[in-house]
Amino acid sequence: xANLLTGNLPFGRQVDRLLKYHLDRIQRxxxxxxxxxxxxxxxxxVLRIPIEDEIFPADLKFVRQQLAPxxxxxxxxxxxxxxxxxxxxxxxxxxxxxxAVPEIDILELPSVSFEMFRTSLPxxx
Length: 125
What we know:
By secondary structure, this protein is of the alpha+beta class. The chain has 4 helices and 6 strands; from the N terminus they run H-H-H-E-E-H-E-E-E-E. The strands form 2 sheets. A 4-stranded mixed beta sheet has the order 1-3-4-6. A two-stranded antiparallel ribbon has the order 2-5.
């Protein structure tokens, strides 16, 4: 933990939130002001999206709106799997860790910016 706090070991949003949450739990021990960090939660979301005008529009705003009432007291992040459908058949797939999920309303795929997250479809899918 000392390596994380001193910057010797890089970490992302999820670890940052976990650290703040746990430091808030031991606030009396360290005596510093709290972060008021809600309990971080990491979930997996799978979207099956039909093609529209040669793109797969992933409605991330809708995903966030659906997660909020399910986990009202948590700070929810999500790993995202997007399965692009043409004629109701899977033709493309992207797997994004929570760190890479953009803070936008609609993610349009394919996109050069997200090509690194494109993965092959499993056999039989």
